[in-house]
Amino acid sequence: MKNLALFDLDxxxxxxxxxxxxxxxxxxxxxxxxxxxxxxxxxFFAQYQAGILDPVEYLEFALGTLARxxxxxxxxxxxxxxREVIEPAIKPKALALVREHQDAGDLVAIITATNYHITAxxxxxxxxxxxxxxxxxxxxxxxxxxxxxxxxxxxxxxxAHMHAWLERLGARFEDxxxxxxxxxxxxxxxxxSIVSHPVATNPxxxxxxxxxxxxxxxxxxxxx
Length: 224
Fold this sequence. Notes:
9 helices, globular, about 20% strand, 7 strands, HAD_hydro_SerB1, about 50% helix, HAD-IB family hydrolase, single chain, alpha/beta
């Protein structure tokens, strides 16, 4: 059985939060009301950093910003977002780290609390086939409804979604001799604590302190 390599996305493989920056991008292009949207977006981001975010409340706020557009409008806006915001943020060291695990034959996945519609093109840009994110609901025409399907992919939810993904592949977590998980956030401590090789990657102060206490390695991808 191959080894397993799991990656968080925001502030781990990217030096930005793709969901927060999506909101800021919508403000910049005039697609949402700046005052009302930025106030809510900033409140949710502060709650995330403090570890007190209600993931369902936030996700349905974020998904609501997607639902206001038709699928064709959203695809056009998102292509511009990828070009103007995401591409400049992708760093060679992050690409190389993913490629290192792929070249070693590891089963690689990105597992993120951000919604799947936002992060799927980013995972594809990293060349990662397997991607787990919070799943938005779509209507019969393929437009987003603003609702979340199932449970969030955050905190302990990452463990549940990881097991479900592996089951769909006909595998079990216990089958892997080695499992790396790279994350920047203390919110990912549930999954970091069960893998054989947790790596605190560009860690927050809280995660850095925990990693030091546990003897976990620390990796910085965005120093230069």
